[in-house]
Design brief:
single chain, 442 residues, alpha+beta, Immunoglobulin-like, Methylamine Dehydrogenase, Chain H, 3 domains, 5-stranded mixed β-sheet, 8 helices
Length: 442
């Protein structure tokens, strides 16, 4: 997403703001050098990072086709910096520090072949590497919101261990869990609740996982495949990373506010965070915990026309508004009939609330849509798929208001696009094309 001259992205433990100005447009250079490696005199596509001693901001540039890299003076002020690299298959030959002064500094970087390729691999590279059908590989996406796939591949559980211990236990964790901050679901997904279908799915998953981990040997019986490094235009970018105060912070959505600061929803904790992109200064505010004992954390974050931030409070079963000027929260809980163990309010869309004073949201637990009247506090609900047949699965995820504040929504489980008329509350469903050719045409 592009806004205010930035491309925004997030990772657990770090909020990342990618400057979209081309590197060559930065005329003044503070630090430059060349990357080399065994059998490669000039290494293109190496991410070279510089972090000031005692600082909280990491600036990363990418080496060009000649192996050269440079940091603009606007991004790197005088001081001592620790250099690090990211290039799949390589490690930094030795720790590297450099002193940056008022005149341009230089620091060549030498790489060495890594002895532990698996430690460097991304989840996508693991999915590329393991044998299996597309459906089997797709099932691995259920693991990556809580931990990396390396943890799965290095495990030594056999089929029975996965089926009777690991999968039932993992299924009991909320989506926003991470190893440092596990959170149990209140609405547990027991075998008795979903019958033989869940048991059979777990058995298939267990058989697949035990065939690609280290349950039968000390090494994987498949080649580890890696993605290519950046080339050409993909190297003309500057990454700026901002440390967050705790490793348990889980930024989900990042929005640049009207004040130019970057706000983020915390997926696992009851806080709303803010970063000043110029200084790296971090602030956060405690979001009210409305349901004690339920998992904490927020998902969707969107501004209204006045710049106030709106949050989906997930398992807390509520909508939150953060007044940007007053720095205060207002919350609205779902009505009692929608306030169950499985309630999960992910998305809140207030961008067009100035049209009629209404704010849209969804409920993942019920495949429901809600509309809040900001004047009265009343919340009305729709369940477009309440009459669905046996065996049908529906999952309303994102909601988008149009200019008149009609709502469009996605059903990512059954591939529908829906529209809710703001005046009549009538729902119209449009089924996505099922054929590959049809999707291309759409």
């Amino acid at each position: 997403m592009r806004t205010h001259g930035y491309v925004l992205s997030i990772t657990t433990g770090l909020a990342i703001i990618l400057g979209c100005s081309p590197l060559q447009a930065q005329t003044l250079t503070a630090l430059s050098g060349k990357v080399s490696a065994p059998n490669e005199a000039a290494v293109e596509g190496v991410l070279v990072s510089a972090k000031k001693a005692g600082g909280t901001i990491t600036v990363t540039v990418v080496s060009d086709e000649s192996g050269n890299f440079s940091f603009p003076a606007a991004k790197v002020s005088p001081g001592q910096y620790n250099l690090s690299i990211r290039a799949i298959g390589y490690d930094l030959e030795s720790p590297k520090q450099v002193e940056v002064g008022n005149t341009p500094a230089s620091a060549d970087v030498k790489l060495t072949k890594t002895r532990n390729l698996a430690r460097q691999m991304s989840n996508g590279e693991w999915i590329m590497s393991v044998p299996g059908t597309p459906q089997q590989k797709m099932s691995l996406l259920n693991c990556v919101s809580c931990h990396t796939l390396e943890r799965v591949m290095r495990s030594s559980y056999d089929k029975d261990g996965f089926a009777t211990q690991i999968l039932p236990r993992m299924g009991g964790y909320a989506n926003q869990s991470i190893p440092l901050h596990p959170q149990r679901r209140v609405a547990t997904r027991l075998l008795e609740e979903r019958g033989d279908a869940l048991a059979q799915a777990r058995a298939r998953q267990a058989e697949f996982l035990s065939s690609i981990n280290l349950s039968e040997g000390a090494a994987w019986e498949y080649d580890l495949k890696t993605l290519p490094r950046p080339k050409g235009r993909a190297t003309k970018v500057i990454y700026t990373e901002y440390d967050l105060p705790r490793p348990t912070a889980e930024p989900h959505d990042v929005i640049v506010g009207a004040d130019g600061n970057a706000y983020y929803s915390n997926f696992g904790e009851q806080t709303l965070g803010m970063i000043d992109p110029k200084t790296g200064q971090h602030s956060e505010w405690q979001v009210p915990e409305l349901k004690k004992g339920w998992p904490t954390g927020m998902l969707g974050l969107r501004p209204d026309k006045d710049g106030n931030m709106w949050l989906g409070m997930m398992y807390q079963g509520a909508i939150a508004k953060f007044d940007l000027k007053e720095k205060k929260f207002t919350t609205w809980s779902m009505p009692p009939e929608m306030q169950k163990d499985q309630t999960q309010v992910n998305m809140v869309r207030a961008e067009q609330s100035h049209v009629d004073g209404k704010v849209w949201s969804q409920n993942n637990g019920f495949a429901a849509i809600h509309r809040l009247d900001t004047k009265t506090g009343h919340i009305e609900s729709l369940e477009p798929f309440k009459a669905a047949g046996v065996g049908e699965t529906h999952n309303i995820y994102d909601i988008i208001p149009d200019s008149k504040n009609n709502a469009y929504f996605t059903d990512i489980a059954a591939e529908y696009i829906g529209k809710v008329d703001k005046d009549t509350m009538k729902v119209t469903l449009f089924q996505m094309p099922k054929s590959r050719q049809g999707r291309a045409a759409a």
